[in-house]
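Bumping my old thread because nobody answered last time. Still need a sequence for this structure:
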C-alpha cells in the first residue's frame, strides 16, 4: 500500500481503489528500469566512428524525444489499466472491470413500495417517491460490473416479498424486475424485508463483498413498529454481513392527513334505528385543518365540518337514522385536504343493515287458548 497521501485521496473516489493504487505503482516500473539501465561509459575516439557520430548528433534530439515518448506511453498504459480496473464512480461502461472482478460482490436492493411512497413529490421524471426509488434502484444496477456482481431485490410492502430472492448476474433482467414492481397500498413491513435480506446474505456467504441498498421514505411508523426491539437486533446482524447504504427519498416538510379507520360502534346495524359510526383521523406535519365529510351510498350526510387533526386524534362520531332499508350499503368518511398523499384521504366500509330478525321459538308446553303456551309472552314481545 502506498504511503503517498495524494494517491490515497485519489483512490477514495473509486469502487475498487486497490486497482487504482496498483496501477499507479506499476506506472513507476518503466522509470526504474530506465534509470537502472543507464551505465557510465568512457569515450574512445575512433576514426571509423566519426561519420556515425556526426550523424547521431544530427538525430540526437529526435531520438531523445522518441525515447521519452516511448517511456511515457509505457507508463500511461499501466496507469490507465489500473484506473480502468479501479472503476471511477462516474463510469457506466464496466467491461474491463468485469474481466477482473467476476463474482466480486452481492448487492441486495430493498425498495419501499408501501402506500406512503405514493406521496406526490413531483421530481423531474418521477411523480411520486416510489417512482424516484425505482430510478435510484436502476442507477445502482447500472454502476455494477456485468457478470461480476449479482443483484437481489426485496420489497417492504406488507407482506415483505423477495422479487429476486436468488441473486442474478443478468443486470438487465434485474432492471426489468424493478420496472415490474407495483405501488402497494399496504403498510410497511420493514422488519420482514430486512430479515429476507439477512437470509440472502446467509445463502450467499461465499461472496467476498455484500452491500445492502435500502431505499425508503423513512416514515416513523416503519422504523418504530411494535417489534422495534427485534428490528434493532436485526440491524446489528445485517451490519456484520453488509455494507449498508440508506437512500431517503422523502423530502423536507412533507405532511399528510388521513382517515385510518372507519367502523360501527355496534356489531349489529339496524334499519330505522340510530346507528353510530366512528372515523379515526390523523394529522402528521403542518397542514391546514381539513373538512370531514360523511356519505351514505354516495349521498352527503349532515354533520360535515372542519377538524383539527393531530397524531393522536379522538374518533369522530356520525349517528345515522336515515337507513330505511336493509341490505348492503356503503358508508364513507373523507377529508377535503390538499395533502400530496391521496390514497388515505377517504375510507369506505360496506355494511349489512338488518331490516328484520328471524327468531325460532320452541315451546315446552303448548296451550289451546291465547297466551296459554309457554312461549306466548316471548312471541308477543318480539312482534307486539
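Sorry it took so long. Here it is:
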Amino acid at each position: 500500500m502506498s504511503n503517498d497521501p495524494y494517491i490515497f485521496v485519489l483512490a477514495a473516489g473509486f469502487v475498487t481503489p486497490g486497482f487504482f493504487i496498483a496501477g499507479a505503482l506499476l506506472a513507476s516500473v518503466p522509470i526504474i528500469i530506465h534509470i537502472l539501465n543507464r551505465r557510465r561509459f568512457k569515450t574512445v575516439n575512433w576514426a571509423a566512428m566519426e561519420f556515425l557520430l556526426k550523424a547521431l548528433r544530427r538525430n540526437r534530439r529526435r531520438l531523445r524525444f522518441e525515447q521519452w515518448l516511448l517511456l511515457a506511453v509505457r507508463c500511461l498504459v499501466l496507469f490507465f489499466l489500473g484506473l480502468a480496473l479501479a472503476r471511477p464512480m462516474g463510469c457506466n461502461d464496466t467491461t474491463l472491470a468485469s474481466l477482473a472482478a467476476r463474482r466480486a460482490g452481492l448487492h441486495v436492493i430493498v425498495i419501499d413500495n408501501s402506500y406512503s411512497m405514493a406521496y406526490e413529490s413531483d421530481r423531474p421524471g418521477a411523480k411520486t417517491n416510489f417512482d424516484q426509488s425505482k430510478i435510484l434502484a436502476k442507477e445502482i444496477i447500472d454502476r455494477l460490473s456485468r457478470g461480476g456482481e449479482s443483484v437481489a431485490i426485496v420489497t417492504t410492502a406488507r407482506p415483505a416479498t423477495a422479487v429476486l430472492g436468488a441473486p442474478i448476474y443478468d443486470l438487465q433482467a434485474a432492471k426489468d424486475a424493478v420496472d415490474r414492481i407495483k405501488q402497494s397500498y399496504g403498510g410497511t413491513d420493514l422488519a420482514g424485508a430486512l430479515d429476507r435480506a439477512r437470509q440472502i446474505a446467509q445463502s450467499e456467504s461465499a461472496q467476498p463483498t455484500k452491500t445492502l441498498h435500502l431505499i425508503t421514505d423513512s416514515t416513523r411508523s416503519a422504523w418504530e413498529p411494535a417489534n422495534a426491539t427485534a428490528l434493532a437486533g436485526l440491524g446489528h446482524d445485517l451490519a456484520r454481513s453488509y455494507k449498508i447504504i440508506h437512500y431517503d427519498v422523502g423530502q423536507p416538510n412533507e405532511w399528510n392527513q388521513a382517515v385510518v379507520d372507519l367502523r360501527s360502534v355496534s356489531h349489529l346495524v339496524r334499519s330505522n334505528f340510530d346507528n353510530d359510526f366512528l372515523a379515526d383521523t390523523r394529522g402528521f406535519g403542518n397542514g391546514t385543518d381539513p373538512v370531514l365529510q360523511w356519505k351514505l351510498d354516495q349521498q352527503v350526510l349532515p354533520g360535515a365540518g372542519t377538524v383539527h387533526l393531530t397524531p393522536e386524534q379522538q374518533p369522530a362520531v356520525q349517528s345515522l337514522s336515515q337507513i330505511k332499508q336493509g341490505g348492503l350499503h356503503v358508508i364513507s368518511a373523507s377529508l377535503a385536504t390538499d395533502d400530496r398523499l391521496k390514497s388515505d384521504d377517504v375510507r369506505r366500509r360496506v355494511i349489512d343493515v338488518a331490516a328484520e330478525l328471524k327468531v325460532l321459538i320452541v315451546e315446552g308446553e303448548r296451550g289451546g287458548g291465547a297466551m296459554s303456551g309457554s312461549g306466548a309472552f316471548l312471541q308477543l314481545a318480539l312482534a307486539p
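Confidence is low (pLDDT under 50) at residues 92-102. Let me know if any region looks off to you.
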